[in-house]
Design goal:
By secondary structure, this protein is α/β, with parallel strands linked by helices. It is built from 5 helices and 5 strands, in the order ααβαββαββα. Helix 4 links the parallel strand 3 and strand 4. The longest helix is centred in the first third of the chain and has 17 residues.
């Protein structure tokens, strides 16, 4: 079955065997399935994009920032500052990209197993990313400690 060019006029395709929009949808779905099904194999050893990281305790649990610092340092990140956030009302842990070096923040979110990644670019920022530890920190720690299969 031949598909008409997307730029074809209806008169150019008249009388040809096409199923109209259904054929286009099927072709697009087939192409999407091929593209998504052909993933590259990820290497066994994840090497994060390192940058300068700040960790702030936003959950109020004593020692949480130090725990996150130790874990992220072991994962290869450069932690230059850790301490308390201005408030302890963070329900969920979040990663904030501070500079255009967004891969660092994306890799932080991946290693922390959180999908909470936002961009608050600041040209005066001294760090590439900030981690605000939320009240979900115990759940995240459990995910880190699961054996990898």
């Amino acid at each position: 079955m031949s598909l008409p060019s997307p730029l074809s006029r209806p008169s150019e395709t008249a009388g040809k065997h096409t199923n109209g929009p259904a054929a286009w949808v099927a072709a697009l779905l087939l192409a999407a399935a091929c593209l998504t099904g052909c993933k590259k194999a990820e290497p066994d050893n994840f090497v994060p994009n390192t940058g300068q990281i700040q960790i702030l305790n936003g959950c109020g649990k004593s020692g949480a920032a130090e725990l996150f610092r130790n874990y992220l340092s072991d994962q290869g990140f450069d932690i230059i500052e850790f301490g308390n956030a201005a408030s302890w009302n963070y329900a969920q842990t979040m990663v904030v990209a501070r500079t255009a070096n967004e891969p660092v923040a994306r890799d932080l979110a991946k290693v922390l197993t959180t999908e909470n990644l936002i961009h608050l670019f600041d040209p005066m920022a001294m760090v590439d990313a900030t981690v605000f530890i939320g009240k979900d920190y115990e759940e995240l720690i459990k995910r880190w400690q699961k054996p990898k299969t």
